[in-house]
């Protein structure tokens, strides 16, 4: 594309964090950021201390750290209160004999307790495993089994999806809710927290010790446990300052659930490491509730996702006009490609430039971004952070010149990069197959000014509403249905959700295609795996295209769907 065809929305002088990009890149050194934390002197550290306790012993002690609301609750907590509540959680876990390195899972809806517990887990040096509340039994079992979790904190409603009998390593089930609904061997969270002291010793750990395990999907195999360490806080703190642009008076709202990495790195760590007031909204999405949340708390910095912005756009300009959103001063997006049209719309109705940011579960924090002080090119993910070198590589690892499409790669290491895939060194090596580089699995190109443009996934991973779904996981569940012989799953382009899941299915003998059967199969996946992994579309086929080795060729399914040429079919079965 020619330079003069690139649309630009210029940075505005009102943005607080003005700094020259090239200059910042030249002068940047991660060790300067490291010096902001106490381990610089002691060699030991704890992210929960840096995010909460450090502020609770400073002039920020009585500052609101958390505004929480949902349809029934409405609460606020200061840094000091968060310190005490997370100490109680830490003590409760310690009393059960849980300690450094143990995996403790959280499987509950967003409530203040979720945040106390997550911080408590980190305070004792244990490794947190947050799960999305929509997960069903198979999804929960796979993650707990793989990680060897010793404890899970959940609710009476969700505990039925924790298959205890298949989890020999799971010793403690802590339930948050009505005591009457508990089984005898369950621990009641409310009582246990009430008995626990609100003073606790921090477990001082090494920067390279485990912090959190986020399970995410690839195109093959079961979900993989992406393992992050305490040192990641260096990048959380830095990007909170430079990309989120957090200032002392900001009211910050990240709409993501902690079951996904955005909900922890940017829903918990980055804002609190920066001492910001963090808004958490429970309950379901609705444009009215969301705008109400911004109006009510006077949110200044807002981090959300393209699907949400597209839904808000769909709700229309009138919905915006019913609320006072004038507090907003910085808006960001992550998770999927952000359409230029959405940026233009946001600029018109919110009077805000929506800043796209690119990163992944595996990268732990933002890497390529539109900074507050940068001109935005709608459709581009932005430019690499100071301290980050990104490039487009061919399959042999050669760096390609501008405008050539290839593998989006990042020079290793950086502070928040995953340290391993739990139990699966071979998977980890796949990302590191080209010496000195992390291969993201995304394809992109760089323009002549160093802006990166996302083109797609190189593998078959589906991105629906910003959530990553592995086709293999869905296919495996589908073939458990009595009517399904074989299944192939692809992402089908969708104007609101980015992609939706479409399943091609061949039926077993004795079953006939019908709408009822489609519904039944969809329900089966919803109830067995999770709602977001269930196909929105099913198409029955007599036969699915397969390689001679029996692998279903999703590439061909996709070509059918998009009415594209099917490409090289030399490996097709017949
Ligand atoms: O394909 C890219 C897409 O989401 C993938 C990472 O998904 P996940 O690990 O769930 O993390 C999402 C939040 C960090 C990437 O490989 N993706 C993420 N951000 C963008 C994006 N695609 C286009 N533009 C983005 N800004």
Describe this entry's structure for a reader.
There is one protein chain. By secondary structure, this protein is an alpha/beta fold. Helices cover 30% and strands 22% of the residues. The protein is built from 18 helices and 26 strands. It has a 9-stranded mixed sheet with strand order 2-1-11-10-12-13-14-15-16, with helices on both faces. The longest helix is centred in the N-terminal third of the chain and has 17 residues, at 79-95. The model has no long low-confidence stretch (mean pLDDT 93). The chain binds adenosine-5'-monophosphate-propyl ester. Adenosine-5'-monophosphate-propyl ester (PRX) binds at residues 216, 261-262, 334-337, 356-361, 381, 440-442, 454, 457, 463, 468.
Strand content: 15-25%
Strand order of the largest sheet: 2-1-11-10-12-13-14-15-16
Largest sheet: 9 strands, mixed
Number of strands: 26
| SS field, number of helical segments | 18
Can you give the helix content as a percent range? 25-40%
| Ions, cofactors and other bound molecules | adenosine-5'-monophosphate-propyl ester
The residue-averaged pLDDT reads 93
Rg from alpha-carbon coordinates = 24 Å
What does the oligomeric state look like here?
Answer: single chain
Q: What ranges have pLDDT less than 50 throughout 5 or more consecutive residues?
A: none
From the helix content, strand content and strand pairing, which structural class follows?
alpha/beta
Gross morphology: globular
GO molecular function, one term: acetate-CoA ligase activity
Domain AMP-binding enzyme C-terminal: 473-551
EC number: 6.2.1.1
Domain AMP-dependent synthetase/ligase: 58-421
